[in-house]
Write a structure and sequence with these properties.
The protein is mainly α and 156 residues long. It has helices spanning 3-10, 12-25, 33-75, 82-101, 109-128, 143-147. 71% of the residues lie in helices and 0% in strands. α3 (33-75) crosses α5. It has a domain at 50-147.
Length: 156
């Protein structure tokens, strides 16, 4: 077992720094290829997981805005949905940054929305205590609407 392979198990940060240096120097034969491939695969998974996670929260809040805000505003005249708006702003800013920093994720966006929406629907139903059937079975928002910082769905 190579020294670099041992270093991976003992000190990940040192392994990463040494791997980067070997790559910069073009010393490919000395690389711990097995762990390097594993780490690169995990990086892609992590970015995709973050995309789905942020979409889940954003979509859940869009659904609650569309299907619950009127019900709440009738009960509480002072309800403005400020915390929901803040969550929409925060998630959209984070998504924009994620997509700018990782442009390859843009091609994964339709699949990420498809993965996130059923989870968002369940989250919205549980948090709002509205029946699942209240919400559309398929995502009612287009990708541009989802990412548009000014889009709010009409309240029902």
């Amino acid at each position: 077992m190579s020294l670099l392979r041992n270093l991976y198990d003992q000190d990940y940060s040192a392994w990463a720094a040494q791997t980067a240096e070997l790559l910069r120097q073009g010393r490919f034969a000395e690389l711990d290829v097995e762990h390097l491939v594993e780490e690169l695969g995990d990086m892609a998974k992590t970015q995709r997981h973050e995309l789905v996670s942020r979409l889940r929260i954003l979509l859940a809040h869009l659904l609650k805005w569309q299907f619950q805000v009127r019900q709440l505003s009738e009960r509480w005249a002072e309800f403005e949905g400020k915390s929901w708006r803040n969550t929409l702003i925060e998630q959209r800013l984070a998504l924009r940054y994620l997509l700018e920093e990782n442009p390859g994720l843009k091609g994964y966006l339709p699949a990420a929305v498809a993965k996130a929406y059923p989870q968002a629907l369940e989250l919205a139903a549980r948090e709002s205590e509205l029946p699942t059937e209240t919400f559309p079975a398929a995502c009612p928002y287009s990708e541009p609407q989802i990412l548009d910082p000014d889009f709010l769905p009409p309240t029902e």
